[in-house]
Amino acid sequence: MMNERATVIKLLMDMDVRLRKFSTKLGSRRDAEERGKLATSTSCNVQKNENILLARRRLAKVCSREYPFHDAAAAAAMIDARNSEYIVSWSEVLVTTLWMFRFLFVLMCGLASGFLTGLIYPQKTFGIEMKYAVEEENCANKYFAKRLEVALKKYEPAAWPFCNGDWRTLLPFLLFKVKAVQYERWWLRVPACPYRPNKSSGATQGVASAAQGQTEAEEDPSTPFQRSIGENDDEACALDIAWPNELNAKCSYLVLHGLNGGSDDMYVIDFVREANAKGSAVAVLINRGLMHTPVRGSKSIFHGARTCDVGAALDAFRLALGDNHNIAIVGWSMGGILATNFVVAAGSKANCIAAISICGALSSTTILQKYGDRSRKLWQLPLTTNLKKSFLAPNIRKLKLKDQGNFFDQKYLTSLQNAHTVDAFDKAFVCTFVGFPTLLEYYNTMSAIGAADSQGCSRFAHLKCPLLVLHADDDPIIPHQVNHPDLAIKASPFAFFLSTKVGGHVGFSTKNSPLKSRWAFPIDAAITFASAACDFKHQSIS
Questions:
Q1: Model pTM?
Q2: Among 172, 3, 133, which Cα is nearest to 491's?
Q3: What's the sign of the alpha-carbon dihedral 216, 219, 224, 225?
């Protein structure tokens, strides 16, 4: 019995040893498989990110990850950029209080009117209209229209309480929430670009010639801007870039934000997230002085007529992605004004596949007419207050610099505080500080089609790349009359207009789950138009 028991124990011990050896071999085999999978995954990720790494290396040739200036002016500018304290006068408090009562009254009336209209006309239809030049030898616009029809079918405006242009503008910014995206902050050195009134607006000046020590603005007499290479009057613009997981899309995008916005605007984040998901890289150009970015020079503040920053950013992004990669410009509100003005001023030198203006304006001078009265009375006071916080507060020190000839007395500062509309602020601050002789000339220079006269149409005829202008007829901030589609189409066959009966200003909320879809319609329209421009270019070449 003892021998049998010892034999059984020995057999069990041998079996245990064999099981352990087998499990060790199995585990090592599994570990090897896992390591192989990890190595394969890593090699795939490296291969996917190879284009992005190459783009970063190219971008580093003309941009830097740190602010490029370290002199006394830069140090003072960094301090100024953080100064957001704005002392509100008693007159502003009174005007703002009266405005709030009027604004709330108009909103409540619109809410009641929209509710009653929905009861009486429950099957009300909302039209969408496309306008473009039709030429037998150029079928691009027909191709764009066919592609856009798919995006248009998805748009059914949200119902009550999105009942009029005011609510369609206000509610998205009150109710919608988006998750932040990961940006890389790059700094691009740009010319200070003083405005020269004796010149008409002209072509872009980018960083490619600047990197070679050339001054394109001096060579091209049509440009109103001049850059001194290597001089102390240069500025730096911030580029916030969001890279996709895999850079494989047909087109990437340069985004221009709104008047007081930045890369953290919700509609910008929504666009970036959608474009990244499709494999596109997105660069957001931050207007000078916004998002607490420093401005060194006394006359280098942002104004809407300066297009050279857009050209410099586009050239830098082009250098990063390569000459064969398509780039489209997408501008929202004020960014739309900049985008259209740039592609018209640059003409054949625009170097982009397409431009999209969402709720922008081709003729800002039209806002000065009766069409802009409601906007001035109802919407422009909060916009002007934000302008004062964004531009006036950080530039108080520059305003008071006697040694640079920019000294203004308290009377002038009071006039700035008493400006309650955007055009009044532009006249008191931008025209005086930058050097425009009149507000009308500033707005004409800022407008792609000028004052919508013969001279403006002649200027608009320089447009040489596809341009989509998306606007809503009930836009309460920038009225739809500012775009003059009939004049623009006659002036240039590259203009394509898409107007909706409802949508508000940068709204366009959809009926099905507006909190989830958010700005899906304008984003889908912009990406569809840019993709169609890429496809049409490829078909034309092949």
A1: 0.84
A2: 133
A3: positive
User: What is the DSSP annotation of 424-465?
Assistant: HHIIIIIHHHH--S-HHHHHHHH-TTTTSSHHHHHHHTT--S
Instruction: List, in sequence order, every residue forming a beta bridge with 128; answer none if it has no partner.
Output: 500
pLDDT at 430: 84
Burial class (CB in 10 A: 0-12, 13-18, 19+), 234: buried
466 contact partners, CB below 8 Å, separation of at least 6: 140, 144, 353, 354, 355, 494, 496, 529, 533
Q: Look at residue 7 in the predicted model and tell me its pLDDT.
A: 55
Q: How far apart are CA 427 and CA 416, in angstroms?
A: 9
β-partners of residue 184 are 241
Token representation of residue 129: 């209209």
Peptide bond into 476 cis (omega under 30): no
Sorted by sequence, the CB contacts under 8 Å of residue 369 that are 6+ apart come out as none
Instruction: Report whether 313 contacts 283 (CB < 8 A).
Output: yes
Q: Tokens at residue 83, please?
A: 């100064």
Q: Could you give the angle at the alpha carbon of 131 between the alpha carbons of 130 and 136, nearest 5°?
A: 115
Residues of the chain with pLDDT under 50: 1-2, 5, 8-9, 12, 19, 22-47, 195-230, 402-403
pLDDT of residue 371: 92
Distance CA 269, CA 437 (A): 37
Measured CA angle at 497 (ends 495, 502), to 5 deg:
165
- pLDDT score, position 89: 74
Which residue in the block uniquely carries the two structure tokens 């922008």? Answer: 360
With contact defined as beta carbons under 8 Å apart, do 227 and 311 qualify? no
pLDDT in the model for residue 199? 39
Q: What is the DSSP string of 377-410?
A: HHTHHHHHHHHIIIIIGGGHHHHT-TTTT----H
Is 341:446 a contact under the CB 8 Å cutoff? yes
**For residues 140 and 492, is the Cβ–Cβ distance under 8 A?**
no
Tokens 């969408």 belong to residue: 128
Across 181-212, b (16+ Cβ under 10 Å) vs e yields bebebbbbbbbbbebeeeebbbbbbbbbbbee
Nearest to 181 by CA among 302, 81, 282, 52: 282
73 exposed, middle or buried (CB, 10 Å; 0-12, 13-18, 19+)?
middle
